[in-house]
Design a protein that fits this description.
It is a multi-pass membrane protein. Keywords: Membrane, Transmembrane, Transmembrane helix. InterPro entries: MFS, MFS_dom, MFS_trans_sf. It is found in: Membrane. GO terms for molecular function: transmembrane transporter activity. The protein contains 16 helices and no strands. The chain is an all-alpha fold. The protein has one domain: Growth Hormone, Chain: A (Up-down Bundle), CATH 1.20.1250.20. Helix 9 crosses helix 15. The longest helix has 43 residues.
Length: 437
């Protein structure tokens, strides 16, 4: 048990590190590349952001800054759709197939696709391909199921190792903490790497090396699926039926399982649309005037905010359990902090205000592991891959649609009020809290 947990942790830390470094590299490269594409004669200061060298910017500089933000937001929509559409199918099938073929094989296939994506990314950056060609990078990532598939199969693996009971919530929360060590170490490193190498190619190569190490490490992962669950022939459409059948189960012992699944997954969708989909928008907002973070500031801020959030989430859930407070109440309270987080973000105009945002942010994530655990506990042991595949399916929809929605709203409202998009995100958290209650 412990050997599998440790090896899986190493795989996911490396995967998280690689993904996050690549995320910052691609998005910050896009910010600079689009400026150079549309305004090649504009010289920027060291922050690489129009108007950030002087708070008293001219009307022309503000116009250029707004146009660059609009174009970057539009590009992020194309990139999200290019990755998200193929990923919808890949994520569902890969996670469900892991119940039959085993977790290890599907993890390997997904990591192999991500490795190919990073090789392409490094190649495109080195030869300075047009930024819109990076949609192909997103497509390759989507066909592999991207990081969402890796996480969903990993959660199924953890469910294989844990007993079905009240402690699964805390077990999944602890594992999310381990997973996010990779994400936030990557976030902390990304800005430093970009600054140290004064560019994006070598950080992209380092990201590629990390995912390659994850690919090698997963070969040593002990399998948890029993031989009786491994089938030599499996129909892909059958896997999709298994996925949907999870949510169509009839009531047992008076419990309305369909309704429970519906409320859980709908709440997760409302939480994930701003949480996952809004990530790029937050990045562009923080890089632009008036916040004016540079690459190092952004990665440091995100790493500190995220890593502290993971530790507090585990303590938050455990304290509520000790006080014998229902998981549903804990999740609803967490969503209320999510509303406050986005409202304050919408009014943020200074770097100091963002640290208030970060403090509230640390309390908003308890709802996600609780809802994952609830759905896992409603599901038989031999269908854990299917249920986490279903969760990943919706997580990917939220990533794709959330990014497109946030990008579209941000692009449309930048000239009016930059922070308006965060008020929309707060609305989604309000719906989630109402559903959970």
């Amino acid at each position: 048990m412990w050997l599998g947990f440790v090896i899986l942790s190493v795989v996911n830390v490396l995967n998280g590190f690689s993904y996050t470094v690549a995320y910052y590299v691609i998005n910050e490269f896009a910010n600079v590349a689009i400026k150079d594409l549309y305004f090649p004669n504009v010289t920027l200061n060291s922050s690489d952001n129009v108007g950030c060298g002087d708070k008293n910017i001219t009307a022309e500089e503000k116009h250029i800054s707004d146009v660059v933000q609009e174009k970057v937001s539009q590009w992020s929509i194309y990139f999200s759709l290019g990755s998200g559409i193929p990923c919808l199918v890949a994520t569902s099938i890969f996670s469900s197939l892991s119940d039959r073929y085993g977790r290890k094989r599907l993890l390997f296939l997904s990591l192999l696709g991500i490795c190919l994506k990073m090789v392409l990314c490094s190649f495109f950056i080195y030869y300075k391909f047009n930024i819109y060609y990076f949609v192909l990078v997103g497509f390759v990532e989507g066909c592999s199921g991207n990081w969402i598939t890796v996480l969903s199969v990993s959660f199924a693996y953890v469910a294989d190792l844990t007993a079905n009971g009240k402690y699964r919530s805390i077990a999944i929360a602890i594992y999310e903490l381990v997973l996010n060590l990779g994400f936030y170490s990557g976030s902390l490193s990304a800005g430093l790497l970009i600054k140290y190498f004064n560019g994006y190619f070598y950080p992209s190569v380092i990201s590629t090396a990390a995912i390659f190490l994850a690919l090698v490490t997963v070969m040593f992962l002990p399998e948890t699926s029993h031989d009786k669950n491994v089938v030599k022939n499996s129909n892909i459409f059958g896997q999709m039926k298994d996925l949907m059948r999870i949510f169509m189960k009839k009531s047992q012992n008076g419990d309305n399982l369909r309704l429970k699944y519906f409320f859980c997954i709908t709440s997760l969708v409302c939480i994930w649309i701003p949480q996952i989909g809004g990530g790029s928008t937050e990045l562009y907002y923080n890089l632009s005037y008036p916040i004016c973070f540079n690459a190092e500031d952004v990665s440091f801020y995100t790493a500190i905010k995220g890593s502290s959030q993971q530790f507090i989430t585990v303590m938050f859930i455990r304290i509520f359990q000790i006080c014998d407070i229902r998981d549903e109440t804990t999740a609803a309270v967490s969503c209320i902090f999510g509303i406050a987080h986005y409202v304050v973000y919408g009014f943020a105009k200074t770097k100091e205000t963002l640290f208030i945002v970060a403090a509230i942010y640390t309390l908003k994530f308890a709802c996600v592991p609780i809802l994952r655990s609830t759905m896992s506990k409603l599901t038989p042991g031999d269908k854990q891959g299917s249920v986490f595949g279903a969760i990943a399916f919706f997580e990917n929809i939220c990533s794709m649609c959330g990014s497109a929605m946030a990008g579209a709203v941000y692009s449309a409202t930048v000239p009016i009020y930059k922070g308006f998009v965060f008020f929309v995100m707060a609305g989604f958290n309000f719906v989630a809290s109402a559903l959970i209650m």
